[in-house]
């Protein structure tokens, strides 16, 4: 268990003692995308000290949130069913934090797993249900994601692929998702660069992924 002990008997206290230590929820966030090797977790959290990552993994294992599992002759970390129950909590926290996000600092980056979870957070299945199935090849800095939306289903995978619209953007994509900039203006000002496909599909993307700040 984590070293922090609040000395109170309540469900929230128990939750904070399990996942309240620094980096713990970000580890859970990345594992919600899929199982990860130790090195993959470290690469996705480039500022985490190795001793802290090892400690958090040990604590989360002891609490029954994650487990080690053999996959193709390597060991990966994955969420247990108990750990996966944190998904709506993580998404709700992401939506709450999004409301006060400003422009990114120079040193802030987008990782594949962080962007995947941001897309899950801002996905509007009620809107997508009335739109044609669409695939987006999105390049966020060095991160490449293939985003497929089919009705209320969202599938986000690493890498490029055949898409109706391919575009590139940096952390400024937040402005489009927040509705602070219109899709046409985002293209004109370079916030989003259309690489291939019909640029007007960016309107569909902005409608499908939206969370007002």
Automatic annotation (TrEMBL):
Transmembrane segments: none annotated. SUPFAM superfamilies: Winged helix' DNA-binding domain (SSF46785). Signal peptide: none annotated. CDD domains: HTH_ARSR. Residues 10-105 form the HTH hxlR-type domain. Coiled coil: none annotated. Keywords: DNA-binding, Transcription, Transcription regulation. The keyword Transcription regulation applies. This is HxlR family transcriptional regulator. It comes from Arthrobacter liuii.
